[in-house]
Amino acid sequence: METRRTLLVDAFTDEPLAGNVAGVVPDAEGLSEDRMGRIAAELGASETAFLTPLDDGADADRRVRYFTPTTEVDLCGHATIASYVALFADGVVDAGADVLRTNVGDLPIDVEESGRVWMTQDAPTVRPVDVDYDRLGDALGVDPAALRDVGADLPVAVASTGLPFLVVPVNFLERLGEADPDLSAVEALSAEHDVAGVYAFTFDAVEAGSTLHGRAFAPAAGVPEDPVTGTASGACGAYLHAVDAFDGDAPAEMRFEQGHFLDRPGLVHVRVDGDEVRVGGDAVVSLRGELALPDAADDDDIIEV
């Protein structure tokens, strides 16, 4: 029976059982798309990264595909951080630069001697959108007044650094913490704005050293709420610079906290320099194992109903 080495890695944290857990299959060579999807469903993490080597002549060092338990997604920040922390811990990659090929293009990766991983995301796009605050508040389960209060200075916008999110400012942490989203309504909003999900944030953070507190809802991708989200953090970092949220005095490095309301706190580090957006974080390998797979012939016997 075939087995594949499989990991669970807690990303954007330096402690196990915190941050955002990702599945990582360090050697996915030869796995079909169907098998990747089934492995991701078996692991149950919000995303699982499947890594394969590339030829020496390729412009990138390795290829990755990301699967939620229900579908493939083009990019996943926390699974990327998790993958490289695991590869670094195993001695597969050294500190320094690497290039990762994803469905949205090649991503430059940098691994620090400490093991912290930085990924350079796609050139940012930020597009403010007109919204009905009553409808948006109802969808998120947030008092619409908490959105209007800050909306005069910080607009709702579609922002992307490879994966688009609807970025929604909220006035206070208490209001954001009360969010109880109507997932079907959030999914409808996501489809309407052609985004992966909604990233709501407030500058009213839990920890004094944090720039903001965020929550991410992506039911269209099978993730009702993501504990800590790298791609959404990159999009939000680009958004903050585009709308000049810091009145021309933006910090060189921002720290976004997330996951506290799911009892999985984590930290995402974000750097924005012009059109370059970099997202960084730590991670911890929390589980190492071998996953048994059915024979290929058994795959053909599966009945779909």
Question: What are the main properties of this structure?
Answer:
305 residues; alpha+beta; 2 domains; Diaminopimelate Epimerase, Chain A, domain 1; 18-stranded mixed beta sheet
Describe this entry's structure for a reader:
This protein is of the alpha+beta class and 305 residues long. It has two domains: 3-116 and 284-300, Diaminopimelate Epimerase, Chain A, domain 1 (Roll), CATH 3.10.310.10; 125-279, Diaminopimelate Epimerase, Chain A, domain 1 (Roll). Helix content is 24%, strand content 35%. It contains eight helices and 18 strands. The protein has helices at residues 33-43, 77-89, 133-140, 144-151, 173-177, 183-193, 230-242, 296-300, and strands at 3-11, 20-25, 48-53, 62-67, 72-73, 96-102, 105-111, 117-120, 125-128, 157-160, 165-169, 197-202, 212-218, 223-226, 254-258, 266-273, 276-281, 283-292. The protein has an 18-stranded mixed beta sheet that branches. Strand 13 (212-218) and strand 14 form a beta hairpin. Helix 3 (133-140) packs across helix 4 (144-151). It is globular. The model has no long low-confidence stretch (mean pLDDT 94).
